[in-house]
Amino acid sequence: MKNILTLTEKQTHFLDENRQDPITGDGFEIGDEIVFCAECKSAFLRESWEYMGNKHCNQIQTLNQIPKAKNLEIRKIVESTCHVPKMTEIAFSWMIDTLVWLIINVLVWQFSKDYFENTSVFYKIVAILTLLLKDNNLIVTSLGKFSRGISIVYLKNHKKVSPLLFPLHHVISSISLALVLFVNHVELVVSLAPVLFCICLSDILFQFDKTRRIIDYILGTATRQDNDIEEIDVFFQEGGTSIWNGYQDPTSLE
């Protein structure tokens, strides 16, 4: 019989797994002669292997060396209870954030007009920047979204989008506002007004399935409400021998 292996002090990694012979239930010790099934990597005492007729898993192949356990990964099962918000919830959130934006600009105008010679340019810059950062007025979210339990999440894993990406949702509206504020030709502004108005409305209305803007399709994101996300840690033990037969690849369990 081929591939009868003797446990020595060099195989302490195997002994540390505290495995047992599936037939006798006995643990393995230094000096034992063992055989590994090549199919499932289960370990047997020589006597047990012979008792089974020198075969297991409907085959007779055995390993020629003691395998080392693989370091298996910790994976997460992500369960999301968030749902698609109603359009009224999105609109209410948008109105709150827009009101906050207007209040900030009024306050900036009131406190800056006495300190800056060119208040107009300063105010225009502030108006554009605050519009760009409208979803960041609470740094990691906005007052409107926080009050309605609304978040922007990645559709793939339901995790919240980084606040650093929030400004991308308002780039078009900010550029439109910049054109309106800085273009000096009244005729041009008037001719562009309908187009700019429609573009600004895209800040809330230009959505393909109520909760996604153009940028959401690029980022793979969407708006969700009550973003109660639960992550369950699933731990695969090193070697996996107490759960699986030997050294099964955990990817097959996903």
In whole angstroms, the N-to-C terminal distance is 37 Å
Number of helices: 8
Order of helices and strands: EHEEHEHHHEHHHEE
Structural class: alpha+beta
Keywords for this entry:
254 residues, alpha+beta, 3-stranded antiparallel β-sheet, two-stranded antiparallel sheet, 8 helices, 35% helix, 13% strand, rod-shaped
Structural commentary:
This protein is of the alpha+beta class. 35% of the residues lie in helices and 13% in strands. The protein contains eight helices and seven strands. It has a three-stranded antiparallel sheet with strand order 1-2-3. Strand 2 and strand 3 (43-45) form a beta hairpin. The longest helix has 26 residues, at 87-112. It is rod-shaped and about 95 Å long. It starts with a strand and ends in a 19-residue tail after the last strand. Residues 227-254 have low confidence and may be disordered.
